[in-house]
C-alpha cells in the first residue's frame, strides 16, 4: 500500500508524523509532495525512507490512497486538473470541512472520504472525524477507520454536524489553549506567582483532568461537584465564570458557522453542486 500526501503544511505534516510514529504507516510507504518543496523535504530529513516528489501527478499515479491536505479553495482546481489520474481502484481523502464527499465524488471516479483530523492526533490522541462517500468501497472504509485508529478515536459523522464537530475536535484545542493562557495571565497579574510556575501548574492540571475523564473516574458535571464544595473557594470562582462567560460560547459557534457559510458558498461556486 502506497500513501500519497499532497500538501505537507501544518496538518499534512502532523498527519504524516502521527501515522509514522503511531506505527500505522512505514515511512517507505509514503510519497509526499508540496507546492513549496522544502516543506516536504523537511519530513524526508526526519524520516529518510519517505519519498518526496515535485509532481502531484506522479504522487497520484504511484499511490493507492491519496490524502489532499490543501486549503478548501485549492481542492477544486487540483481535482479538475488531475481528475483522470484518480482511477477507480484508488481512494481519495480530503481533510478540509467545507468540501463535502459528494463534491469530491462529482470530480473523481474513485472512493472518497473526508477525514478531519485534530492537532491532538500528533500525540496519538483525540478524535478524528470520518465521513464516507456514497460510492466508497467497503475495503476502503475499513482501511481508513483502522488507519486513524492508530492515532485517534475515529468517529463517523454526517454532513449536518460537520462544522460543530470540527469546532469541538479540531478548533477546540486552540480555543482552550487561549482560555488557559488567560487563566495563567490572571494568576500572574493578580498574585505573586511567576509565569513559568503558573504555566507548569496549569499544564499539569489539564493533563490530569484529561486522564480523569479518559479513565472514566468522573463526568464533567460530577467532577465539578467533587471540587466545588458548597460555600467554598471554588464556588466563588465558578460564580465569576458564570457571570463573565454568559453566552460567549453560543457566540463562538455563531461566528465559526458564519465563516463556514462563506467557505461553503465559495466551494459551491467552484463545484456547482
Automatic annotation (TrEMBL):
A single BP term in Gene Ontology: L-proline biosynthetic process
Domain of life: Bacteria
UniProt cross-references to PANTHER family, sorted A to Z: COME OPERON PROTEIN 4 (PTHR11645:SF51), PYRROLINE-5-CARBOXYLATE REDUCTASE (PTHR11645)
Xref: InterPro entries: 6-PGluconate_DH-like_C_sf, NAD(P)-bd_dom_sf, P5C_Rdtase_cat_N, P5CR-like_CS, P5CR_dimer, Pyrroline-COOH_reductase
SUPFAM superfamilies recorded: 6-phosphogluconate dehydrogenase C-terminal domain-like, NAD(P)-binding Rossmann-fold domains
Coiled coil: none
Entry keyword set: NADP
Gene Ontology molecular function terms on file: pyrroline-5-carboxylate reductase activity
Family: Belongs to the pyrroline-5-carboxylate reductase family.
Residues that, per the record, bind NADP(+): 6-11
Entry-linked Gene3D superfamilies: NAD(P)-binding Rossmann-like Domain, ProC C-terminal domain-like
Pyrroline-5-carboxylate reductase dimerisation domain sequence ranges: 164-262
Annotated protein name in UniProt: Late competence protein ComER
Residue ranges constituting the Pyrroline-5-carboxylate reductase catalytic N-terminal domain according to the UniProt record: 2-97
